[in-house]
Amino acid sequence: MKLILLGAPGAGKGTVAKMLTKIDGAVQISTGDILRGAVQAGTELGKEAEAYMKRGDLVPDELIMGIMEKRLQAPDCEKGFLLDGFPRTIAQADALKALLARLGIELDMAVNIDVPREVILDRLTTRRTCANPKCQAIYNVKSSPPKQEGVCDKCGSPVVQREDETEAAISHRLQTYSEKTAPLIGFYEKEGLLLNVSATSSDAVIAAIQAKLGL
Ligand code: AMP
Which residues are known to be catalytic? Predict the structure, then answer.
């Protein structure tokens, strides 16, 4: 499957993407994970992106398109991909459309995961993430804590609160989402590619996607 996952930060895009990878071998492509990996590794990309990310601002479109142009041509994308956190602006959506046309790739749909704001706020303040850039497993102090506090079940690295998950950065990220990313819902509706799912459980989102794709 070739999907875009839309939704506010904390809507569950990452969790849903990870679950979908188990269905037909499609890979999760999270621009947030790629950027956090680059920041930790201290690469040029990481140095350019870091200040934007700390503030909860979007990284410039050109940097993101540079990453995605390469990433979508990697051999592991042949079985399909789940775009998690990309596109984030109309300019990125336009550039993606042109890129996919050039590569001869057709999207199945863009899934908008619609979750109430109170749920989003609660999830983001209680979310914890594995600090290992190759793992980045997601936990929640209330609903799915690691077995041993502060230690990743999967790789044993520290489980931490992301720097952009302080209250100030969260509220800025949500404002950025409303201004810059929410308009993509209308964009993909016009393209005839939108599936809107109002659900707080990832299982319900997966079921709606499978039903729509006939899987
Ligand atoms: P995420 O993990 O998707 O919430 O992304 C974390 C941060 O990475 C965002 O707040 C942005 O600063 C940056 N980021 C991730 N994806 C994009 C994107 N497609 N466009 C611009 N900035 C992005």
Answer: 13, 88, 127, 162, 173
Question: Which residues, at least 6 apart from 98, have a Cβ–Cβ distance to it below 8 Å?
Answer: none
How many angstroms separate the CA atoms of 170 and 27, rounded?
27
CB of 59 shorter than 6 A to ligand 1: yes
Q: What is the pLDDT of residues 100-114, one digit of tens each?
A: 999 999 999 999 999
- For residue 46 and ligand 1, the question of a CB distance below 6 A is answered with no
Instruction: Name the residue with the closest Cα to ligand 1, atom 2.
Output: 32
Radius of gyration of the CA atoms of the chain, in A: 16
Q: How far apart are CA 57 and CA 50, in angstroms?
A: 10
Give the separation between CA 20 and CA 90, rounded to whole angstroms. 25
Give the domain ranges of the chain. Answer: 2-115+179-213
What phi and psi values does residue 72 have, to the nearest 5 degrees?
-70, -15
**Region of residue 85 (left: phi > 0; alpha: psi -120 to 50; beta: else):** left
What is the per-residue pLDDT across 68-95, written as a single tens digit (0 to 9) for each? 999 999 999 999 999 999 999 999 999 9
Confidence (pLDDT) at 27? 98
In CATH, the number for domain 2-115+179-213 is 3.40.50.300
